[in-house]
Design goal:
Strand order of the largest sheet: 6-7-8-3-9-10-12-11
Radius of gyration: 21 Å
Distance between the termini: 19 Å
Structural class: alpha/beta
Strand content: 15-25%
Helix content: 25-40%
Largest sheet: 8 strands, mixed
Number of strands: 12
Number of helices: 10
Order of helices and strands: EEEHEEHEHHHEHEHEEHHHEE
């Protein structure tokens, strides 16, 4: 029997009105027709260059931004203002990118972690609340004695642990991790990634893991979706995407990943893309990547290619990639 996805995103669009002069404005298409599913207990990695719309996808499906169009379905129910969205906001949480700005400097760590418990009224007594805070801090490798301290007294890695503890407070099933390690030192990144994997195994969590570092995403993700200028251009299992990248943009991203072995690094050929990323205010006609693509042909300008499955579990948005299996 086919497993029903925990989260389904269908045709998600997020447009922002940008002023271009006196009484004139235009749409900035931050996210343009994005669709994907995430199964319970799975991690979907979402990667791409800065400005491609990764964070906006996360914030839009969490309804921190009201989507311009499309559907977000969680556990079989379409999200809409009201009881369904209220329930979703308890069952789904977000870990933000910057551990320095995402924590309130005027609140103690205990109050920061307890905020979802307070908002959703998930305790019967002050003692139960305090015990839950102590349990959450212990879960992320901090001590209950640190609950009375303030965020500025902690290092970046510790602050991100506090943010993760806050996200876990309402006992969520789904967490959007918005570049949770990009602001941390490499040694601390590994600790936080390993902790996220351990928490997923212990608590049965489901992640959307947003990042620009493909090596980090490969380590934690079951499947990976690659974004370019507001659209998903390729999606496959982590192993398949690294072993057999099909889209020219994915191949270029993977060629830029550092290889620790100098001999292997010399053998690999770096794919340098020409030109700059187009402005999302003036997206090229047809395939948005065609202006930088080494394989582009005139037909690429005619229409925007759809994301289609070209082999089992491997989808790509490119008219030059043939279907190889059913």
């Amino acid at each position: 029997m086919t497993q029903t996805p925990l989260l389904q995103v269908k045709g998600l669009k997020q447009y922002f009105n940008i002023s271009t002069g006196l009484f004139r404005s235009t749409h900035l298409k931050a996210v343009d027709d994005v669709s994907f599913d995430i199964n319970a207990g799975e991690t979907l990695g979402l990667v791409g260059e800065s400005g491609c719309g990764k964070t906006t996808v996360g914030r839009s499906l969490m309804h921190l931004y009201l989507p311009t169009a499309g559907e977000v379905i969680f556990d079989g129910e379409k999200l809409a203002p009201g009881p369904v969205l209220d329930s979703f906001r308890r069952r789904a949480q977000m870990v933000f990118q910057d551990p320095y700005s995402s924590l309130n400097p005027r609140m103690t760590v205990g109050d920061i972690v307890a905020e979802p418990i307070d908002v959703h009224k998930l305790y019967q007594s002050k003692k139960e609340r305090n015990n839950r805070v102590a349990e959450l801090l212990d879960l992320v490798g901090l001590s209950s004695e640190q609950a009375t301290r303030y965020a500025h007294e902690f290092s970046g890695g510790q602050r991100q642990r506090i943010g993760i503890a806050r996200a876990l407070a309402s006992r969520p099933e789904f967490i959007v991790c918005d570049e949770p390690v990009s602001a941390l030192d490499v040694s601390i990144q590994a600790q936080v990634i390993n902790m996220l994997e351990d928490l997923q195994a212990r608590l049965g969590l489901t992640y959307l893991f947003i990042a620009h570092d493909l090596s980090v995403v490969k380590h934690i993700s079951n499947r990976i979706a690659v974004m370019y200028l507001g659209r998903i251009v390729e999606m496959a299992s982590s192993v398949d995407l690294h072993r057999n990248p099909l889209h020219p943009y994915t191949r270029s991203l993977l060629s830029a990943v550092p290889v620790p072995d100098p001999d292997k690094a010399r053998e690999l050929k770096r794919i340098i893309l020409k030109g700059d990323v187009p402005s999302p205010l003036k997206v090229p006609s047809g395939c948005a990547f065609r202006t930088r693509c080494p394989d582009a042909i005139p037909a690429c300008a005619d229409s925007c290619p759809l994301l289609r499955e070209v082999s089992p579990g491997h989808s790509v948005s490119c008219i030059r990639i043939p279907v190889t299996g059913a």
